[in-house]
Write a structure and sequence with these properties.
The protein is an alpha/beta fold. It has 3 domains: 83 residues, SRP54, nucleotide-binding domain (Four Helix Bundle (Hemerythrin (Met), subunit A)); 194 residues, P-loop containing nucleotide triphosphate hydrolases (Rossmann fold, 3-Layer(aba) Sandwich), CATH 3.40.50; 130 residues, Signal recognition particle, SRP54 subunit, M-domain (434 Repressor (Amino-terminal Domain)), CATH 1.10.260. An 8-stranded mixed sheet has the order 3-2-4-1-5-6-7-8, with helices on both faces. Helix 9 links the parallel strand 5 and strand 6. The longest helix has 27 residues. The radius of gyration is 26 Å and the shape is flat.
């Protein structure tokens, strides 16, 4: 799975909370007046982020109560203390501890519910890929009998990740399809079953009755409610209606790459008392992430998310390849072919601005920074226009070779020269670092 929290998610909320807490900087102690002013601004920021007013008020009341009367240690400023209190309460608001799905049963059955357009079918494919990576053998089940496109979409997703799909175009009874799919799964050694159900544009009795009947018939290990995070408080209201009827086990927030203010993520646990288990965005099947309340709280407060950054790197970098590269660097044999390989690995981690936002203290400072996401693409074009010999030995690249490379890549001679200069500088740095290691 790749990390997919975009740099824009919670961006305005993060900036406004940071600004509110700055009011306490330079204060000698925490007082009822300065805490009241700060928490009022935090409450306003939460409401503007589409957090339910009652939840926002309860949150800031708890923060205020815990802050007032605290003795500030000489090594800790009032601002630092309030950040700690706000961070702890944000973690609780977001759900406390991270909760994964249960795939220990054989078979483990997951019922996927939600409105039409929330991203249920795409999430079902992402979940199947995630579960397959755990060594399980999942089966996708197409129970949306009203939209043939949904069945076709599930088949395409299943084929792309090598996961079987159970569908019956002749059968219009989703309860019957689901129960027969379980029998099929057991006969064919599928130990995880993911049931994709039909949705509607809005909640109606027929949909609720149908999915309730499916749940009663198949007794799923977990029911997961998928909701479009861009719908804000509507997402929270929809979650409550589904939970009242289905008593689901966890929430999946989708479409975090859109113009989301974060209100759904901050409100949903308080309203339905069910954990957010996954967040996802886009159509790519690796764009799925387990939801960690503590990490998200850290990002909201501008503290970064180094753990997710490291995990994302580990998920895309091949250990054997890393050892080979390390060996080549130690022998000063690192070439443009290796450089290209590393760039392609980095690209898999996501967009540059998102990666930078995970670094502590950087998040809010890059809000208005114009990061050129095509910079890697330009470098790739140039290197791929070189011959294998040129990549291995850039010193071979004379003026005539440069003219050919520029023509083949569609880039300028200035871009090529800049790349070669930067690569040579990097090699010099690597060589000097190796020299320092040898002296130790």
């Amino acid at each position: 799975m790749r990390g997919i929290f975009t740099s824009t998610m919670f961006e305005n909320l993060s900036l406004k909370i940071e600004k509110a807490i700055k009011n306490l900087k330079g204060q000698g102690r925490i007082s009822e007046i300065n805490v009241a002013e700060t928490t009022k601004e935090i409450r306003k920021a939460l409401v503007e982020a589409d957090v339910n007013y009652k939840i926002a008020k309860e949150f800031t009341d708890v923060v205020k109560e815990k802050a007032i009367g605290q003795n500030v240690l000489t090594s800790i400023s009032p601002g630092q203390l309030l950040v700690k209190i706000v961070n702890d309460e944000l973690i609780q608001l977001l759900g406390g501890e991270q909760q994964d799905i249960n795939i220990t049963a054989n078979p483990s059955i997951f019922l996927i519910a939600g409105l039409q357009g929330s991203g249920k079918t795409t999430f079902s494919g992402k979940l199947a890929k995630h579960i397959k990576s755990k060594g399980r053998n999942p089966l996708l089940v197409a129970c949306d009998v009203y939209r043939p496109a949904a069945i076709n979409q599930l088949k395409v997703l299943g084929e792309s990740i090598g996961v079987a799909v159970y569908a019956d175009l002749e059968n219009k009874n989703p309860v019957d399809i689901a129960t027969k799919a379980i029998t099929f799964a057991k006969q064919n050694h599928h130990n995880v079953i993911i049931v994709d159900t039909a949705g509607r544009l809005s909640i109606d009795e027929q949909m609720m009755s149908e999915i309730y009947e499916i749940k009663q018939a198949i007794r799923p290990t977990e029911t997961l409610f998928v909701v479009d995070s861009m719908t804000g408080q509507d997402a929270v209201n929809t979650a409550k209606n589904f939970n009242d009827r289905l008593d689901f086990d966890g929430v999946v927030l989708t479409k975090l790459d859109g113009d989301t203010r974060g209100g759904a993520a901050l409100s949903i646990k308080a309203v339905v008392n069910k954990p957010i288990k996954f967040v996802s965005n886009g159509e790519k099947l690796d764009a799925l992430e387990l939801f960690y309340p503590d990490r998200m709280a850290g990002r909201i407060l501008g503290k970064g998310d180094v753990v997710s950054l490291v995990e994302r790197a580990q998920s895309v970098f091949d250990e054997e390849e890393a050892r080979k590269i390390s060996k080549k660097i130690s022998k000063n044999n690192f070439d443009l072919e290796d450089f290209l390989s590393q760039l392609q690995q980095i690209k898999k981690m996501g967009n540059v601005k998102d990666l930078m936002s995970m670094i502590p203290g950087v998040g809010n400072k890059i809000k208005d920074l114009d990061v050129d996401e095509n910079v890697f693409k330009n470098i790739e074009c140039i290197i791929q226009s070189m011959t294998p010999q040129e990549r291995q030995d850039p010193d071979l690249i004379n003026n005539s070779r440069k003219a050919r490379i520029v023509k083949g890549s569609g880039k300028s001679i200035q871009e090529l020269n800049k790349l070669l200069t930067q690569f040579n500088d990097m090699k010099k740095m690597m060589k000097s670092m190796n020299g320092m290691k040898m002296k130790r």
